[in-house]
Amino acid sequence: MKKSPAAQTMESSGRTIGEIVADDYRTSKVFESHGIDFCCGGKVSLLEICKEKKINLGVITDELEMVKKEPLERAMNYASWELPFLADYIINVHHSYLKDNTSHVSEYAKKIAVVHGAAHPEVKEISKIFDKVATDLMTHMRVGEEEILFPAIKRVVEARKGGATEDSKDRETIKNSVLSLMQEHDEIGAAIHTIRHLAKDFAIPSDACNIFVVTYQKLKEFEEDLHKHVHLENNLLFLKATQQ
């Protein structure tokens, strides 16, 4: 029996943003359009965030239902992927993106800080914050995830598949690593939010040169990739790894 719109609204309102996006990544477009954080801020319920941002709950629920009617690409059905495959996807897509682009964005930010810092002091602060984010992210990915957490997740999954007893040390590693990495996600997310605020939502000043334009475009692209990256970890990989 099909649920009424009112029933759907009530059911969705109690769920967290992270749960909704984890079930169907297409819904992320709705949250992005309303300026709602679905990765680091994914633990908040839909009802709570609507009250906080003064958004009509019925309107956003209708928008969520509309995007779910769009064709779902198999490649987007992240919730159905096995954890080792999801971990490899994160490394090959999102970690690779960060390794390829972070240093370039950092250099662009430093250049506009030197050239435009006097007229736009905010770009000096943006460069400083992004430089720390870049440094923190590299250690976070390489050591915390690629060398410690992801291999532990894969060993536990493989042991279960083979009918073997999982190593208690791996289970402890997963638990402790997830807590630490999620805290780091919150700190990095807060820093990126500050950059957006300083950049006035990446609005281009009238006196901006080409490198200024490119820098803001790259910062926005970086933020968008990071949102998806952190969502896949916080709301899918980390959550499932600690619950299995």
List the helices and strands and how they pair.
Elements: H1 5-13, H2 17-23, H3 28-33, H4 46-53, H5 57-67, H6 83-116, H7 122-161, H8 168-198, H9 210-243
Helix pairs in contact: 1-5, 2-9, 6-7, 6-9, 7-8, 8-9
How would you spell out the order of helices and strands?
HHHHHHHHH
Annotation field: number of helices: 9
Number of spatially distinct domains: 2
DSSP strand content: under 5%
Structural class: mainly alpha
* Overall 3D shape: globular
Task: Count all strands and give the number.
Answer: 0
Terminal-residue CA separation: 32 Å
Mean pLDDT: 91
Portion of residues in helices? over 70%
Largest sheet: none
Low-confidence stretches: none
Integer-rounded radius of gyration: 20 Å
What does this structure look like?
The chain is mainly alpha-helical. It folds into two domains: 5-76, SP0561-like (Orthogonal Bundle), CATH 1.10.3910; 81-243, no CATH class. The protein contains nine helices and no strands. α2 (17-23) packs across α9 (210-243).
Concise overview:
This protein has nine helices and no strands. It has 244 residues and is mainly α. The protein is globular and about 65 Å long.
Describe the structure using short key phrases.
244 residues, mainly alpha, SP0561-like, 2 domains, 9 helices
